[in-house]
C-alpha cells in the first residue's frame, strides 16, 4: 500500500455542475418502497438528464471556476479528466476538453478511467506532476454523466461534473496520501462487454434478469453488492487509520471527513469504526445521489463552502470503489474560491 507525501501544492478553487432536472427517489424505485429506499441509502433525490455527458458538466464547472479565479487560460499547463463515462472509447476526452475550454496547445492532458476513488487518485497524479514547480497551475475534472447506452434509470446514481484547481505554492503543506488496489475483486463492479476482452455481439444487447432483480444487458454496469459493501466498510476506515498513523495525524483533530457518497449505510459503518461524530461527516447524497468520482468535491462545494471562508479546514477525503481501488488524502483548505453550483 502506497504512502505519498506531496508538498508545495494547494487547492485554490473548486466548482461543480449538475443537471437542473431533479429525479425523486420514489420515481426510480421499483424493488423497494420509497421510504425504505431513502432510509437504507440516504438518497431522497438526484440530478439526471440524458442531455449532457460528463464532459459537458465538467466543462461548465471549469468555465465558472476559471472565471471566478480570474485565471488566464494560457497559464493552465495540465488537465486531468477522471470519469467512467468518457465521450468516446478514443480519443481521450481530456484532449477534447482542452480545445473546448480554449486552453493552450502546450497544456498536457490525461484521462484516468476510475470511479469512486478517482478524485483522490486524480489529485495525487496531478500534484505529482506539479511537485517540481514546472507546472504552476492545473485542473482536475472529475464526474460522470450520461450512460453509454439507453437503460432503465438507476435508483442510486446521479450525474455531476466538478473542477478542482491546483496551484504550485512553495511552502504549502500540500497532501498526504494513502492509496491501494485489490485487482482480485475487479469483477465486483464491472461492465462485462465492449472492451477488447469481451467484444460486443448482437446478443449482448438482450435484456436479462440480474442478481439484484433488475433487467440489464451486457453493456450495463453490474455490481456484487455484498462484496462491495464488505470491501468499503473494511478498507476505507483501515486506510484512514493507516494514513493518520503514518503521518502522525490525530483523527480527533480533523475538522471533516469527506467520504465518497456511496450510500448512508456504508458511510455510517465507516464513521462508527472511526469513532467520530456525525457532524464531521458532511453529506450530499440526499440531494444528489451517488455521483461517483464527483462525490467528494461536490460534497465540499455544497456543504462546506461557507465555512472555508471563515477558517482553514483540515480534511480527510476517502474514495473507494471500482477496481477495486481506494485512496485517502489529508489536506487543508484555506480560503479557496468555491464557485456557486452551476445547473444546466
Write structural notes for this entry.
The chain is of the alpha/beta class. Helices cover 29% and strands 26% of the residues. It contains ten helices and 18 strands. A hairpin with a 5-residue loop joins strand 11 and strand 12. Helix 3 crosses helix 4 and helix 6 packs parallel to helix 7. The N and C termini lie far apart (40 Å).
Would you summarize the structure shown here?
The protein has 344 residues and is of the alpha/beta class. Helix content is 29%, strand content 26%.
User: What share of residues are in beta strands?
Assistant: 25-35%
The oligomeric state is single chain
Q: Tally the beta strands.
A: 18
Please estimate the helix content.
Answer: 25-40%
Distance between the termini: 40 Å
| SSE pattern | EEEHHEHEHEHEEEEEEEHEHHHHEEEE
Using the CA coordinates, give the radius of gyration. 19 Å
The major sheet is characterized as: 7 strands, mixed
Average residue pLDDT: 91
Global structural class:
alpha/beta
Q: If helices are DSSP runs of H or I spanning 4 or more residues, what is the number of helices?
A: 10
Can you tell me the overall shape? globular
Low-confidence stretches: none
Q: What secondary-structure arrangement, pairings included, does this model have?
A:
Elements: E1 2-6, E2 9-18, E3 22-24, H1 25-28, H2 34-41, E4 45-47, H3 54-69, E5 78-82, H4 93-101, E6 108-112, H5 118-130, E7 137-144, E8 160-168, E9 175-181, E10 189-190, E11 208-209, E12 215-216, E13 222-223, H6 225-246, E14 256-259, H7 264-274, H8 285-288, H9 295-303, H10 305-308, E15 313-321, E16 325-333, E17 337-338, E18 342-343
Parallel strand pairs: 2-17, 2-18, 5-6, 5-7, 14-15
Antiparallel strand pairs: 1-9, 2-8, 3-4, 7-8, 9-16, 10-13, 11-12, 15-16
